Automatic annotation (TrEMBL):
Record-given protein name: GALNT1
Pfam families assigned: Ricin_B_lectin
Organism of provenance: Bugula neritina
Ranges for domain Ricin B lectin: 1-93
InterPro entries in the cross-refs: Ricin_B-like_lectins, Ricin_B_lectin
PROSITE patterns to which the protein is assigned, alphabetical: RICIN_B_LECTIN
Length: 98
């Protein structure tokens, strides 16, 4: 998964946060296999696990590892959550941050 500037044309840059805690675009979901690993897109399976994310305090916490989605260069990685860290702040529109 690579990070690119928003082009505001939708398509592959639109993700949905689903009731089963997945972040998906089309048929692929954000997935991380272990702590401190790179976040990748993988076929959605609907079972949670590596594809379950909790959105709280503008952070995306990987439920299995308890680490946060973090921008590192042009990659998206799991790292220890640090509240207010600029590379860990995410905005999910039309979703009540809990």
């Amino acid at each position: 998964m690579a990070l690119l500037r928003c082009h505001n044309n939708g398509g592959h840059q639109i993700f949905a946060y689903t009731e089963d805690l997945a972040l998906r675009t089309d048929e692929v979901c954000m997935d991380a296999s272990s702590a401190s690993s790179q976040i990748k897109l993988f076929g959605c399976h609907g079972l949670g696990g590596n594809q379950a994310w909790v959105y709280k305090d503008q952070q995306l916490k990987h439920k299995a590892s308890q680490q946060c989605a973090t921008i590192v260069g042009e990659a998206l990685m799991l790292e220890k959550c640090i509240l207010g860290k600029p590379t860990q702040i995410w905005l999910i529109e039309n979703f009540p941050d809990t």
